[in-house]
User: What shape does this take?
Amino acid sequence: MEAFLGNLAMGFGVALTLNNIFLCFVGCMVGTLIGVLPGVGPIATIAMLLPITFGFDPTGALIMLAGIYYGAQYGGSTTAILVNIPGEATSVVTVLDGHQMAKQGRAGVALGMAAMGSFFAGTVATLFIAALGQPLTKLAQLFGPAEYFSLMIMGLVFAVVLARGSILKAMCMILLGLLLATVGTDLETGQERMTLGIQDLSDGVDFAVLAMGIFGFAEIVRNLENPETRDVVRAAIGRLWPSKDDFRQSYFPILRGTLIGAVLGILPGNGAVLGPFASYTVEKKIAKDPKRFGRGAIEGVAGPESANNAGAQTAFIPLLTLGIPPNAVMALMVGAMTIHGIIPGPQVMTKNPELFWGMVASMWLGNLMLVIINLPLIGLWVKLLQVPYRMMFPAIMIFCCIGIYSINNSTSDVLFTAFFGLVGYTLLKFGFEPAPMLLRFVLGKLMEEKLRQALILSRGSFSTFIERPVSAGLLLVAVVMLAIALLPSIQKGRDEVFTE
Amino acid sequence: MSGQVAPSEDQSPGLIKSTQELGAGLFLMAIALFFYWQGLDLPRGTLRALGPGMLPLALVTLLGVGGLMMVIYSLFETGPRLERWSLRGPFFVFGGIILFALLIRTCGLMIAGPVSMIFGMMASDEFKLKEATIFSIAMTIICILLFKTLLRLPIPVIGTLLEPIFPF
Assistant: This one.
């Protein structure tokens, strides 16, 4: 307990310097600013804003990046409530009741409650991370290559099971991501693999190049194709501060949502996506009058939004303690951290305690900022929602171009990004969802490295993965999950969950 | 919108029950074949000491099988049809990016910015030259102030070709 408080105190000592408060503020601010734009999800937002963090020291840059991440998340919710467009999978649920509330002139209350629920969830999740960080890091140090490999396999299976749409397509995206990760110089032999003889590819495909190509440029082309149908709320925003009744109805949904979201967020393989769905289902089940849901019930906003934010934050736990990103956004954070010279994993906490705890503390600070920034600025966000897409996309384009160029001062990176944009567009056309590919691309190198290490240690026997108890347990969970997901009856239920 | 796959109409009955699925399968098989061909010369090693070529080969095989399964499914299971492909969007957006890459060193951001943005904006049906010109120049100025003046990124504002003309 003493160590726990001491660590938090150290963290706040780092986060509360004037410089870092400012960076956190700017991060939250621009994150929301971009995240609120319809058609720009959190991945695109972070990819686009990555270059503005380049000039700062690693701690400051990461604090800013975390701010951008929360801002992007919250901006997505704002868009969901005001425009009826879910910016990302996790705000799909918010649209249901949030947009109805907005139509009834209660957009302000919905946004206010979402902000306060998120703040509460963020506070709890920060404590969660602080408490679990150390034990999990210790655990991580006991992990050998076999355990790491099995853990990543488990995450892979989870990701397949939780992906929307066809399981086969999700699996193929994962394979493609892993395949792309093999491009470049082989780690052990130094041999160049599948570089087509292009010098710039000998270090492999750059992560930011892939991310911006697929989530920045491909999305632009995709959005241009679909004629815009933006249903911006015309009713008044109304007051922001919820009434006593609203609070009374929201206390428990927020509590339950936070708990559900925080627990699911830790799961490998994008468990955070499930949080809002689970919370919404729970609230609807235990409500006295379930018919109110879908017609502007405040519980349907408060619960899922809290779950969303809690999950978004506890998703940092596998990243910071094990070095394994659980979803595509976190994979992007890995890329960002690597650019700043930090390899996420258990060693961060032991070698760089100030950075680790400073970031944890700044998470809480970021959540507080979001409440402070957003409530007075809602009017501005509404204006931003009216910016036509023909003005938005060239701005996104130039930001991405400048960002890509600045990473390595390389024009070939910009060209590669255009190429991956084209690939991403083709994938979208064929009905693939590219997020799992991005995540596996990041994990690919790590997986291959651990696989080969484990096989060297076991002298080429695959039974090492089953003989070691922890590894066997992880694989067993993966097999059971996959079997369950492939059962026809579950598959039908799964479709319903995702279409609801 | 982000990362989401828009629902499209289901295919009308015929030999191929889903052109989207068929295209997806063929596309994956093409990728698998390409990477297989690229990885042919890599030593595969043994199980005890995996070579650089082993994992790519395994992945390529699985990917090819996945693609084949999709092709087979597309003949039996009704699914979405392939949407119409537009050429305008990809041409101008990716063309704009390529222009940026070609111009940034030689002409700098002050030329590369407006040129690539105006070219890219032609991807939209509502393109207006005057609006695009004003917008792209304003955006370029913002970018120069933000990235060069404020954040000090090493992005060339005046390229190597124009430096003699702008000696400052």
About this structure: Chain A has a mean pLDDT of 82. The CA atoms of residues 66 and 363 of chain A lie 7 Å apart. The radius of gyration of chain A is 22 Å.
